[in-house]
Design a protein that fits this description.
alpha+beta; two-stranded antiparallel sheet; 10 strands; 6-stranded antiparallel beta sheet; 11 helices; 13% strand
């Protein structure tokens, strides 16, 4: 079932039922523009003198009810323990998750409080007036550190999947085209390496797994960050989310031609992020030393996700310049997403010659 098909079913059938389930009578419901690779149909629900809400309809059939329950229970746990997240709202039946079956297809429904503020992109990547950008870097780390600290005390009722439940040899064999044998080999080597990483309570637990500025809003009056989009959350290394945050920082300096200056910026940026992070939770130096490795794991997730999206959309696998760049970094063992390497061009950031597959 495609995104557009779900929108038609929602307009004709689902939205009325959902309105009754959640008491949304009188709310104006508007679709949110889908982003590339999006798994859901999303709407804003607004009404005068009421808090705005976000409605999510999940339609892909690759996740179980238990997996969705694990997600919403985790969000509620974070919210109740002081995490800066958009709370998930109960239906009139008292459920955090509802399901509706239509023409033998099951849709999973969730409703969330709309986060205060806006995404950074909606503010044209300008931070709030009168505040240094380093405040933003610090807050990114601090909010993430708080979520991880809460996760360290979390025991699920419905257990969400773990990293290796998805990322394993069988899964990679299905997703990576056979015309990319070196990539498959490197990914399998990477999996073998990270299998040996610590999985104690201080280093491994529930993580966001997609922590970036497209998945949180900023209150530009206070600088407060509110996190959402936990539908990729899983049990993994806390360092994975920190590595994601490292890669986010590249955007601030990506057009700088001098690799040395890019490296100096990234060192300073991540030092500020870590100061924020460590204000809320601790992390062993032995895990921080694994930053280059976890950046490679982020690369793996990006690559596999790109092929998965093509598959979900019924498309033949192709490699554009961005995907080709990422694959090249993994195949040639180029660290830090090639950001300090000769492969990188500030004129065409993160792009490499298209590959035929």
């Amino acid at each position: 079932m495609t995104y557009n098909e779900v929108v038609k079913i929602a307009d004709a059938y689902l939205l009325l039922l959902i309105s009754e389930l959640y008491g949304l009578e009188g709310y104006e419901t508007k679709p949110v523009k889908a982003h590339t690779g999006g798994r859901n149909v999303v709407y804003t629900c607004e009404k005068e003198d009421a808090d705005a809400k976000i409605l999510r309809i999940a339609f892909l059939n690759d996740r179980s009810r238990e997996d969705f329950q694990g997600e919403v229970e985790y969000i509620r746990y974070l919210f109740e323990h002081g995490g800066s997240v958009s709370d998930v709202l109960s239906s009139r039946n008292g459920n955090l998750l509802e399901e509706i079956t239509h023409n033998h297809h099951t849709f999973f429904i969730c409703l969330f409080q709309k986060a205060k503020g806006r995404m950074l992109s909606e503010n044209h990547y300008r931070y709030r007036e009168g505040a240094p950008i380093t405040e933003y870097y610090y807050n990114c780390g601090r909010v993430l550190g708080k979520l991880h600290q809460i996760s360290k005390g979390y025991t699920p009722v419905h257990r969400r999947h773990s990293f290796f439940d998805k990322y394993n040899a069988e899964y990679l064999e299905k997703r990576i085209p056979g015309s990319l044998p070196l990539l498959k080999e490197k990914l399998l080597e990477l999996l073998k390496t990270i299998e040996g990483l610590d999985r104690n309570r201080e280093s491994f637990g529930m993580i966001h797994f997609d922590y970036n500025d497209g998945n949180y809003s900023i209150d530009f009056d206070t600088g407060q960050i509110t996190v959402y989009d936990f539908d990729n959350s899983c049990f993994g290394w806390y360092m994975f989310d920190l590595a994601s945050l490292w890669t986010n920082g590249m955007g601030w300096i990506q057009f700088e031609p001098d690799a040395g200056k890019r490296q100096k910026f990234m060192d300073d940026y991540f030092e500020t992020v870590l100061a924020g992070y460590k204000s809320e939770t601790r992390i062993e130096n032995s895990m921080l030393d694994k930053l280059p490795l976890l950046i490679q794991v982020n690369l793996m997730e990006n690559i596999v996700d790109a092929f998965e999206v093509m598959r979900n959309n019924g498309e033949e696998p192709v490699c554009d310049e961005e995907l080709s760049y990422r694959i090249k970094c993994l195949e040639d063992d180029i660290p830090y997403m090639g950001f300090f390497h000769s492969i990188y061009s500030c004129e065409e950031p993160f792009a490499y010659e298209k590959r035929n597959i």
